[in-house]
Design a protein that fits this description.
Elements (H helix, E strand, L loop, with lengths): L7 H6 L10 H18 L3 H4 L2 E2 H16 L12 H17 L3 E2 L18 E2 L2 E2 L1
Parallel strand pairs: 1-2
Antiparallel strand pairs: 3-4
Helix pairs in contact: 2-5, 4-5
Length: 127
């Protein structure tokens, strides 16, 4: 790996997670959605009371499907649906990290989407 300078900290810093690779536009939209949630429910409210994964999973899917159907912004908040979806995922990750989230996912399903013979599965059987 080529280092951009000779500062001794650079060699150590280059081995760490490269936070600057997350697009700033994604950070901004997530932050706007998180601010909206903080205004409604209180900042870091999910850390104060245990939360359930299903609540944030469902919310994430509602935002993603609204966006997929052509609605760019949430009608209530005015924030990007994609920002809201990212905020939901961020809360799930943070809740897992801080052990304040209830894992209420359904029983584990198949390990992958392939049948034993290697053919892909579909919702109604086979493609």
């Amino acid at each position: 790996m080529s280092l951009p300078d000779k500062n001794p900290k650079t060699a150590f810093g280059m081995k760490k997670t490269r936070m600057g690779l997350v697009p700033t536009e994604a950070i901004r939209h997530t932050a706007k959605a998180m601010t909206n949630g903080a205004d409604k429910y209180g900042a870091y409210n999910w850390r104060k009371e245990n939360i359930s994964m299903s609540v944030y999973y469902d919310a994430c899917l509602r935002h993603l499907t609204a966006w997929w159907d052509g609605e760019e912004k949430d009608k209530d908040s005015g924030c990007s649906h994609l920002g809201h979806a990212m905020a939901c995922i961020a809360i799930i990750l943070d809740g897992k990290h801080h052990k304040v989230i209830k894992d209420d996912r359904p029983q584990e399903g198949l390990k992958n989407d392939k049948a034993q013979d290697g053919r892909p599965r579909s919702l109604d059987g086979w493609y």
